[in-house]
Amino acid sequence: MSERLWPGRTLYLLEKRGISVRRDGPSVLVTEPGKAPRRVPARLIGRVVIVGNVPMESAVVTLFVQQGTPVIFFDRRDLRPAITLLCEERGPQRRSRQHLLFRRPPTSERIRLWLRSKRRLSVVRVLKRLSRRLAKRFEREGLREEDYDALLRTLRRSNPRWQVLVGVLRGMMLEFVIPLLQRARLDPHCGVLHPAEDFGLGLDFCFVLEPEIHLQALRFFKDPTRRGHLPWFPRGKDMQEIVLRFENSKKNLEAQVQALIDELLDLMRDVDGGDLSRMLRHRRQQKVAKDL
Questions:
Q1: Which of 37, 46, 39 is closest to 8 using CA atoms?
Q2: Which residues pair with 14 in a beta bridge?
Q3: Would 3-84 and 93-276 be classified into the same CATH topology?
Q4: Left if phi > 0, otherwise alpha if psi is -120 to 50, otherwise beta: which for 18?
Q5: Alpha carbon 180 to chain centroid, angstroms
Q6: CB atoms within 10 A of CB 3
Q7: How far is residue 66's CA from residue 26's CA, in Å, rounded to a whole number?
Q8: Residues 6+ away with beta carbon under 8 Å from 180
Q9: Could you tell me which of 261, 259, 281 has the C-alpha nearest to residue 97?
Q10: Torsion sign over Cα 75, 161, 135, 131
Q11: What is the CATH number of domain 93-276?
C-alpha cells in the first residue's frame, strides 16, 4: 500500500520504490510505476500521514497547510514525528484566556488534576475491554498510575518493538487531536502537563487517551510473529493493519476528544469571570501604556 484515501479524509503516503507526489492545481497527483496517476482533490483531505522517503514537491505540503490540513512525517530511523501547521501571528481572544488560565495557579493545578482523572478513566475503560476481572480489581482497590506503569514495563521488556509502535500511534493520535483543538479555537501549544513543549495541549490530550494507543498495540502484537528485536519499523501489510485499526477507531476517538474539549471549556467558564476580565483588562492597559 503506497497511498490510500480513507473515507474519513485521511491521505496516507507510504514509502515505495518509484512513487512520487506533485501538486496539480488544487489537487495532488500521486504516481507510481505500473499504475495510472491518481489525482486527489486537496479539499477532500482532512489529514495527511507520510511514512518513510516519499519524493514530493514542497508545493504539496504548502497546499495542505494553507488550507489548514496538518501533515505528519514519520522517519523510519527516528520515532519522533514532525508535524507541519500554518503559522499564525495572533490567536483569537479565547487563546488569551487559555494562556492566562493554564499558567496561573490555582486554575492550572485544577486543570492538571482534571487531566489526570480523565487519564484514569481511560485506563479503566481499556482494562474493561481487556479483562473485566482486572478492571473490577482496580475499581475495588483503587487505580494508581504506578500499577498501570508496571503493566506497561512488563510489555516493553518482553517485546522491544512495543515502544516503536506506540511512538507511531502516538504521532498519529497527536495529528488527529490538533485540528479538533484548533476547531475549538484553543491553542494546541499551550498545555498544562507539557507546558514548555510544542503542541503541549495536544500532548496533554494524548496523555489522557494513551491507553487507547496501548490497546491498539496490544491487539497488533497479539500475533507472536510480530514481536522481536530491533531495529524494526512497520511496513507493508503490518503498516496497512495499523492504519486500518486506527481509522476504525476514529469515530470513538473523536467522540472522546470532543467530550474532553467540552469539559475543558466548561472548566474555563467556571473560573471567576470578574478576576479573569480584570487580568485581561490589566494586560490591555499595559499594552496601551507601552504603545504611548
A1: 46
A2: 51
A3: no
A4: left
A5: 10
A6: 20
A7: 11
A8: 254, 257, 258, 261
A9: 281
A10: positive
A11: 1.20.120
B/e letters for 85-95, b = 16+ CB within 10 Å, e = fewer, are beeeeebeeeb
pLDDT by position in tens, the chain (length 292): 455 544 447 899 988 888 999 999 999 999 988 889 999 999 889 889 998 889 999 999 999 988 888 899 988 776 678 888 776 644 555 577 888 889 888 889 999 999 999 999 999 888 888 877 777 777 777 767 777 888 788 877 888 899 999 999 999 999 999 999 988 989 999 999 999 898 999 999 999 999 999 999 999 998 888 988 888 888 888 988 999 899 999 999 999 999 999 999 988 888 755 455 555 556 666 665 666 5
Residues 17 and 14: their CA atoms lie apart, in Å, by 10
* Residue 244 · residue 220 · CB < 8 Å: no
The amino acid at residue 96 is S
CATH architecture assigned to 3-84: Ribosomal Protein L15; Chain: K; domain 2 (3.100)
Strand order in the sheet with 38-41: 20-24, 27-31, 38-41
Give the side-chain half-sphere CA count within 13 A for 265.
14
Question: What are the structural domain ranges in the chain?
Answer: 3-84, 93-276
